[in-house]
């Protein structure tokens, strides 16, 4: 087989995190993909072993800037699992509230990027505009728009001021209305459906084989959702639906995330209602951690975040294993990218939500003589959407 | 009979040193029995491999697999102890669980454990590191 290589990364304006993808293409078709990671390996696991348990929570908060509370929640779950530490009811609701707000802002961030990649810049601007009130809610709750510093072993660091709850509800109301509009647009827009339906399919069997998690696997009919499966924090006390679709394509991944935002606003509303009604402590005084081992996990916006902590009875972990969801979701490219046109590669790579930031995308395509050809994959992706739009609406 | 009891009965003497606590089931397994146990967890119970933790203790290298039964929230954690720290070699579970490919590559580069029958036994995270890092998670561990 005669194929050319299209390298993406490792350092590229599109990539918020440095990663390297090499698409092997035959003409316009992707026939294989090779992945290399580790370009920003920072040794968090080793660093954590030099920190106290409390310091480790702050350390893991810096693993990811977008889902910066998912790692601390999984980390405190792992430490609490060693001694079966119970946390106060009010703290359970606050943890759930912060985790769900993070899911909303992360999914909105992805939705905006996805819109931009396929030439829907209006969707991009809407999604990021409606993400702003969520960041304001974080500021009201924690004082920070990112890296909230809320998690502690045995509870949370800061209480939600009951006086701020009406203001928080107002922000949620606004996001709710707009999300209904975006969900309707995503379901009804014929161009969006034609552009994303059947693109980058991850089959049910491949999702299981690669142990994929989060929206990536739920769009392929695998129902795993840590919030439902493990019933930690206040998830067994609130009412919400598990969103599972069957086709495994980019369209279903988009719809899963949009519907999850709506479910998350439901959860946040129930948490705020409860926080207005109940009172009590937010932190149990945990003086020491026994020798032992614990597993903690949380359903981050991208899927299951996993932490394993082993203690020898001192105030530091002797082993702290961290596994982020992208670590198991990114290898699914090997299954979902094969056989698709180059114009669909960008949105297929983005559909897993591997922390991309969005500026401009310019790749180098090498011809058979290894001479570089300039090829803008973002332009190819947007041109394909425009072609579909013209087929449906004509030249209006 | 619960799923954990069924699993214990099906595996018999292939698992030992069982420790169970709320939603977590830790047990030891030998290199010879590893694939059979993993095959049962992955294909019969339908568990998902969350990850595997490699670490060095005073007497052993240790690999702790974390299999999650997402229908119950139960974790099954087979623990494999490797006495030969100089030339650690174990069977790869990647032929059974595709998702283990990166996980085993990372343990290989961090601890130097070689996985037999792995489709691509090379470094994962530090392949292009400016320094040739040699088993970074084993540094100073024994002392």
Offer a concise description of the structure.
The complex is a heterodimer of chains A (396) and B (143). Chain A is of the alpha+beta class and 396 residues long.
Characterize the biggest β-sheet of chain B. 5 strands, mixed
Q: Detail the poorly predicted runs of chain A.
A: 356-368
Number of strands of chain B: 7
Helix content of chain A: 40-55%
User: What is the beta-strand fraction of chain A?
Assistant: 5-15%
Domain count of chain B, please report it: 1
Number of helices of chain B: 3
Describe the structure.
The complex is a heterodimer of chains A (396) and B (143). Helix content of chain A is 48%, strand content 15%. Chain A is an alpha+beta fold. Chain A has a single domain, classed as Cytochrome-c3 Hydrogenase, chain B. In chain A, the strands form 4 sheets. Chain A has a 3-stranded antiparallel sheet, with no helix packed on it. Chain A has a 3-stranded antiparallel sheet with strand order 6-7-8. A two-stranded antiparallel ribbon of chain A has the order 4-5. In chain A, strand 9 (363-366) and strand 10 form a beta hairpin. In chain B, strands 1-2-5-4-3 form a 5-stranded mixed sheet. In chain B, strands 6-7 form a two-stranded parallel ribbon. With 143 residues, chain B is of the alpha/beta class. Classes of the chains: A alpha+beta (396), B alpha/beta (143). Chains A and B meet through strand 6, strand 7 and strand 8 of A and strand 3 and strand 4 of B.
Characteristics of this structure?
heterodimer; A: 396 residues; alpha+beta; Cytochrome-c3 Hydrogenase, chain B; three-stranded antiparallel sheet; B: 143 residues; alpha/beta; Beta Polymerase, domain 2; five-stranded mixed sheet
Summarize the helices and strands and which ones pair or pack.
The complex is a heterodimer of chains A (396) and B (143).
Chain A: E1 4-8, E2 20-26, E3 29-36, H1 44-48, H2 53-61, H3 70-83, H4 89-117, H5 121-142, E4 151-152, E5 155-156, H6 165-188, H7 190-196, H8 204-209, H9 214-218, H10 226-229, H11 250-277, E6 291-300, E7 303-312, E8 317-323, H12 325-329, H13 333-336, H14 342-351, E9 363-366, E10 372-375, H15 377-393
Antiparallel strand pairs in A: 1-2, 2-3, 4-5, 6-7, 7-8, 9-10
Helix pairs in contact in A: 2-3, 4-5, 4-11, 4-14, 5-6, 6-11, 7-15, 14-15
Chain B: H1 3-11, E1 15-21, E2 24-29, H2 34-45, E3 48-56, E4 61-69, E5 74-82, E6 89-91, H3 100-111, E7 114-116
Parallel strand pairs in B: 2-5, 6-7
Antiparallel strand pairs in B: 1-2, 3-4, 4-5
């Amino acid at each position: 087989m005669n194929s050319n290589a299209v390298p993406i990364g490792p350092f590229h304006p599109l990539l918020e995190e440095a990663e390297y993808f090499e698409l092997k293409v035959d003409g316009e078709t992707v026939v294989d993909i090779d992945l290399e990671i580790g370009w920003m390996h920072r040794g968090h696991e080793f660093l954590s072993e030099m920190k106290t348990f409390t310091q480790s929570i702050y350390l893991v908060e810096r693993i990811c800037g977008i889902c910066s509370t998912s790692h601390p929640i999984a980390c405190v779950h792992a430490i609490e699992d060693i001694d079966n530490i119970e946390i106060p009811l009010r703290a359970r609701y606050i943890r759930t509230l912060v985790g769900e707000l993070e899911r909303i802002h992360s999914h909105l961030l992805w939705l905006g990027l996805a819109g931009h990649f396929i030439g829907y810049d209006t969707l991009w601007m809407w999604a990021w505009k409606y993400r702003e009130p969520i960041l304001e809610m974080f500021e009201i709750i924690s004082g920070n728009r990112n890296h909230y510093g809320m998690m502690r072993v045995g509870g949370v660091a800061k209480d939600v001021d009951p006086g701020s709850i009406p203001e928080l509800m107002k922000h949620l109301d606004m996001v709710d209305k707009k999300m209904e509009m975006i969900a309707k647009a995503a379901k009804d827009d014929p161009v969006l459906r034609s552009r994303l339906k059947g693109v980058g399919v991850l089959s049910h069997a491949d999702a299981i084989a690669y142990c994929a998690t989060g929206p990536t696997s739920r769009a392929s009919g695998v129902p795993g959702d840590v919030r439902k499966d493990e019933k930690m924090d206040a998830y067994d006390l609130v009412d919400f639906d598990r969103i599972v679709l069957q086709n495994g394509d980019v369209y279903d991944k988009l719809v899963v995330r949009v519907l999850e935002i709506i479910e998350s606003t439901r959860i946040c509303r129930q948490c705020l209602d409860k926080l207005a009604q109940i009172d009590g402590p937010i932190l149990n005084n945990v003086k020491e951690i026994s020798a032992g081992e614990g597993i903690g996990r949380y359903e981050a916006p991208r899927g299951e975040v996993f932490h394993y902590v082993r203690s020898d009875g001192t105030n530091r972990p002797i082993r702290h294993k961290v596994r982020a969801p992208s670590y198991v979701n990114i290898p699914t490219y090997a299954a979902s990218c094969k056989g698709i046109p180059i114009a669909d590669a960008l949105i297929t790579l983005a559909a897993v939500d591997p922390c991309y930031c969005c500026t401009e995308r310019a790749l180098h395509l090498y011809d058979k003589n290894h001479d570089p050809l300039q090829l803008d994959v973002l332009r190819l992706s947007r041109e394909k959407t425009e072609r579909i739009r013209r087929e449906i609406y004509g030249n209006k | 009979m619960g799923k954990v009891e069924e699993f214990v009965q099906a595996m018999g003497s292939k698992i030992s040193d069982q420790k169970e606590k709320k939603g977590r089931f830790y047990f030891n397994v030998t290199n010879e029995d590893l694939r059979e146990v993993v095959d049962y967890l992955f294909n019969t119970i339908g568990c998902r491999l969350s990850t595997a933790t490699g670490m060095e203790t005073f007497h052993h290298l240790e690999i702790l697999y974390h299999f999650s039964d997402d229908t119950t929230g139960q974790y099954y954690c087979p623990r494999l102890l490797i006495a030969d720290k100089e030339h650690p070699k174990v069977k790869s579970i990647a032929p059974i669980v595709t998702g283990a490919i990166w996980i085993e590559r990372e343990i290989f580069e961090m601890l130097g454990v070689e996985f037999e029958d792995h489709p691509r036994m090379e470094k994962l995270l530090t392949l292009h590191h400016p320094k040739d890092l040699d088993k970074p998670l084993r540094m100073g561990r024994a002392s």
